Amino acid sequence: MNDLKRLRLICCILFACICLFAYRPAAAQSQLPETTKAEEYASVVRNESGANIRSEASLSSDVLRAVTPGSPVMVLEHRGEWVLVEDFKERKGWVSASLLTGPETVIIKVLKANVRSGPALTAGIIAKLDEGTVLSVVETRGDWLQVSDFEGSNGWLHQDVIWPAPQAAGSERQPSAAPELKPAREVVLAADTFKQAPPRTPEEEKGTVAEQVQPDAVEEIQSETVKKKAAEAPAPVQAEQPPAPPLARDEGYRLGPRDVVSVNIFAGGAKQISEDVTVSADGQITMPLLGRAQAAGLTLGELRKDSIEPLALLYFVEPQVTVAIKEYHSLSFYISGSVENPGHYELDKEPTLLELIAKAGGLESDYGHRAYIMREGPGETEADQEKTILVDMKALLDQGDMTNNIRLVTGDVIHIPRGSELNQASNAIFVEGEVKNPGVYTFQQGITALSACILAGGFNDYAAPNRARIIRRRGTEQEIIELNLDAVKKGKAKDVELQPGDLVHIPDSWL
């Protein structure tokens, strides 16, 4: 009988162990909140180490990567104590279910995201957050979310820059009556925290405080002050309207490197964005909201047309875009020789020869009767790409022959020798373009193109010594010698020995 009882006890213990073992996977799986099962999103528990994402559902499997505490993930599959998850970059892996909690956070999914002081594009930018920054959602208003970092600092983000979507993340929240939130603060770019914004000045606070009942004497003084301010105040500001379209001259102008363009975006009767953007050396421009786009070679009208459609598709209803030239830098000209102020000129149009001479202060008294215009052309051969135009200055100035008043093209190099240089065997050389001290230098036997540039102070930051040219007179003819001074400096090419009267030109790398 005792043996029978002992056998029954052993069977009961074995049954209990089997039930406990069978129950453990379900219990581990139930650790995920119900919201995770329904919405298929979760967040990594906020501990110091975060969580390891593994290749398989096992502690012995390889660690693919580690995620920071609070990172949101999408749940794809449950397998015992393990969960298959996917992050905002669509990278999959397995994580222990015990390290997950309900969907509490969102993450920045773009390279840089603007944090604003309010839920609108017109609100000021108080921070710029990097991709991968984890945030909590405090409140949503339409397409905007008020977010908070782990220190409790707040700001507003557009839903297009976060992951997961607000509905998936369980963030359709109304303003909380919980403890008062900290004021929005600017981001310290080296960390995922916000930095205190500067306090508002008394001028900024004007008009924001409700009127208070004051004693009679104070009211009388305030009344006089109010009347005085009302008389001095400008007329009420009407709804902002887009500025007038650019001048016809600007509409035909084609953008080039270093040009600065003012971009204004209007929608809903108000200016939404106003920025000045610069065309880069490779012809790209960073348009507000739209990112990088090709601009070099486009007119303002073409740039405006290319911007309206994506802005209307992604951001605004019937947006209006104006673009205008703020600074011209791609229309570039060089003039040297017998002018009052030789040098580099950036103009807002392509001038004639006389207009550029006027910009350079006019001719010196000892100007020669010839001018040389060195021009780069679009031809396929080197001979077509480089040409020198000879101008008869005597016919232009003394006889009024305007056929010699050549319309210049951006990048033209103009040299007007002095009369003494033309009438005598020259004992000088000329260095101009992108060097520190362009000018006339005494010819020395054995001087080379590179040593002449060194004599002129060396190259400027935007110089292109690999496209240097030597212009040499042979009677009435001109010879152009191409020279790569970069290769000369590296010992890969032979330098050219100069002759009296040679002109060394170092072009601009931007052209």
Describe the protein in words:
The protein folds into four domains: 25-101, SH3 type barrels (Roll), CATH 2.30.30.40; 108-163 and 174-196, SH3 type barrels (Roll); 248-327, wza like fold; 332-506, Outer membrane lipoprotein wza domain like (Outer membrane lipoprotein wza fold like), CATH 3.10.560. 27% of the residues are buried. It is built from twelve helices and 31 strands. It is of the alpha+beta class and 511 residues long. The chain starts with a helix and ends in a 5-residue tail after the last strand. Strand 11 and strand 12 (144-148) form a beta hairpin. The strands form nine sheets. A five-stranded antiparallel β-sheet has the order 6-5-4-1-7. A five-stranded antiparallel β-sheet has the order 13-12-11-8-14, with no helix packed on it.
Salient structural properties:
511 residues; SH3 type barrels; wza like fold; 4 domains; five-stranded antiparallel β-sheet; elongated
What is the fold's blueprint, element by element?
Elements: H1 2-29, H2 34-39, E1 41-44, E2 51-54, E3 63-67, E4 72-79, E5 82-86, E6 92-96, E7 100-101, E8 105-108, E9 112-116, E10 125-130, E11 134-141, E12 144-148, E13 154-158, E14 162-163, E15 185-188, E16 193-196, H3 202-205, H4 216-232, H5 248-251, E17 260-267, E18 270-278, E19 284-287, E20 291-294, H6 300-314, E21 320-327, E22 332-337, E23 343-346, H7 353-359, E24 370-376, H8 382-385, E25 386-392, H9 393-398, E26 413-416, H10 419-423, E27 428-433, E28 439-442, H11 449-455, E29 468-474, E30 477-483, H12 485-489, E31 503-506
Parallel strand pairs: 22-26, 27-31
Antiparallel strand pairs: 1-4, 1-7, 2-3, 4-5, 5-6, 8-11, 8-14, 9-10, 11-12, 12-13, 15-16, 17-18, 17-21, 19-20, 22-23, 24-25, 24-26, 27-28, 29-30, 29-31
